[in-house]
Design goal:
The protein is an alpha+beta fold and about 250 residues long. It is built from 6 helices and 12 strands. The protein folds into 2 domains: about 190 residues, BirA Bifunctional Protein, domain 2; about 40 residues, SH3 type barrels. Bound molecules: biotin. It comes from Planktotalea frisia.
């Protein structure tokens, strides 16, 4: 259900002119929030990406974090990266992007015409073994993308929504689409569990059935991308048999 401002009921929304990182802001304010809250920054000065990488943020792009207060165990909480990827997919469709141009890359990138248009950084905020609060940080190249030379060698080619499709949308409009899509999928996740999310994710996955490389700091595994299991792990069929991978960077 939407409020009369077009934002999903029960979700808070704050727009900051500038912040270091919306995920850092999420960590600062999470305890003071009574419910789910979207934090959008129109300028972000210290954007962070997965695995300690920097994330380039030119003005006009989307930098937002959803703060949640989940009560499940950490392994279930982490599956929300798939919920967020699907929400991004649906938000792009709502912007007018053709479905055949979009794909989801494990664990949680969104590809547009084969290039990376959006990334997700999931961080738990809390003490001890409990998650406490969850920050789902989302960066979307709406207007501009880094030049290939600005990202790691072998990283996916960065692309922007504007350059690939001609669709011009500002971050606040994009937030409305994303927040609606996320709220619908979050309800599906908490009601029916991971199965429907997993099926929808797999139906949109890039390179299923093809040979890919999964790389961690310690090892590299080359194999056929078989599936993503019920725990969200990547499953590769290799010459040594089935390999189940919980965390890695994937290269095509
Ligand atoms: O490495 C990735 O693919 C994830 C990038 C996530 C970037 C977003 S922008 C909003 C939020 N705030 C941050 O500092 N990072 C995330």
């Amino acid at each position: 259900m939407l409020t009369n401002t077009g934002f999903p009921l029960g979700y808070g929304r704050r727009v900051l002119a500038e912040v270091d990182s919306t995920n850092a802001e999420a960590a600062r304010i999470a305890k003071s929030l009574a419910g789910p809250e979207w934090i959008l920054a129109l300028n972000q000065t210290a954007s962070r990406g997965r695995r300690g990488r920097a994330w380039r943020f030119p003005k006009g792009n989307f930098a937002g974090t959803l703060v949640l207060h989940p009560t499940e165990t950490p392994d279930i909480v982490a599956l929300r990266s798939f919920v967020a990827s699907l929400a991004l997919y649906d938000a792009f469709i709502a912007c007018g992007v053709q479905a055949h141009c979009l794909a989801l890359k494990w664990p949680n990138d969104v590809l547009l015409n084969g290039g990376k248009v959006a990334g997700i950084l999931l961080e738990s905020i809390g003490a001890g073994g409990s998650v406490g609060h969850l920050a789902i940080g989302i960066g979307v190249n709406l207007a501009d993308a880094p030049a290939p030379a600005e990202v790691e060698v072998q990283a996916m080619r960065p692309v922007s929504l504007l350059s690939e499709t001609g669709v011009a949308i500002n971050p606040e409009e994009f937030l409305d689409l994303l927040a609606s899509a996320y709220a619908r999928l979050e309800l599906q996740f908490t009601t029916y569990g991971f199965s429907p999310i997993r099926e929808n994710w797999l139906a949109r996955a890039a390179k299923i059935g093809e040979v890919i490389t999964a790389r961690t700091m310690a090892s590299e595994t080359v194999g056929t991308f078989e599936t993503v299991d019920e725990q969200g792990n990547l499953v590769l069929k290799t010459t040594q048999g089935r390999v189940v991978i919980a965390a890695a960077d994937v290269f095509f």
